[in-house]
Amino acid sequence: VKEFTIQNTVPFAMASLDGTPIEDGDRIKLSPSSEWALDGSLSVDSENDQANLRCVWKINHHPVFEGCIRTLHWPSDAGDEAILTLDVIDDDDDYGTISVLLVHPDAREPLPYPLIVLVISTLFMLSAVLLRFRSSDDSSSIPKWKSDDEN
Question: What is this structure's pTM?
Answer without folding.
Answer: 0.67
